Amino acid sequence: MFYRLIIAGLAALCLAGAATAQDNPIVKRLADFTQAYNAKDAAAISGFYTEKAALLPPRSKALVGREPIAAHYAKAFAEGVGGLSYKVLEIEQTNPETAIEIGETQVKLGAQTIVGRSLHVWKQRDGQWFLHRDIYQLVAVSQ
């Protein structure tokens, strides 16, 4: 059960080249998200999501809205999850206000490393990118 909580923040993904360049605003947002995750700041993490965002963890119901998403991350952190590293694989901007991003994640839980994959739908609001849909899967667990 704790594995679905672990991957929640993995959160996080899309094409090589200019779309994944460090000056891409979504790449910057993911770096800031990773920083908040590693600080175990569930409230800050929820601020990366739109107000009607949906987090879709494996084997769990959809969590809609910032409050349930923050609670999900807080529970994962309380169980010892941390040390997120995130790699953007692809970003495709589908229109001026929407982008799809695919990435790979690693988090730590004690001596275990949990590897995941995520797909994010981003929405731009008032010049800032926010996670609107966040789905992830567990790929591997290693010691």
Give keywords.
single chain, 143 residues, alpha+beta, Nuclear Transport Factor 2, Chain: A, 6-stranded mixed β-sheet
Biggest β-sheet description? 6 strands, mixed
Structural class: alpha+beta
Give the name of the CATH architecture. Answer: Roll
Shape: globular
Helix content: 25-40%
Number of domains: 1
Distance between the termini: 18 Å
Spatial order of the strands in the main sheet?
Answer: 2-1-6-5-4-3
Account of the 3D structure:
The structure is a single chain. The chain has helices spanning 2-6, 25-38, 42-46, 66-78; strands at residues 49-56, 63-64, 81-95, 98-109, 112-125, 128-142. With 143 residues, the chain is of the alpha+beta class. The chain has one domain (2-142): Nuclear Transport Factor 2, Chain: A. Strand 4 and strand 5 (112-125) form a beta hairpin. It is globular and about 40 Å long. It starts with a helix and ends with a strand. 34% of the residues are buried.
Task: Set out the fold topology.
Layout: H1 2-6, H2 25-38, H3 42-46, E1 49-56, E2 63-64, H4 66-78, E3 81-95, E4 98-109, E5 112-125, E6 128-142
Parallel strand pairs: 1-6
Antiparallel strand pairs: 1-2, 3-4, 4-5, 5-6
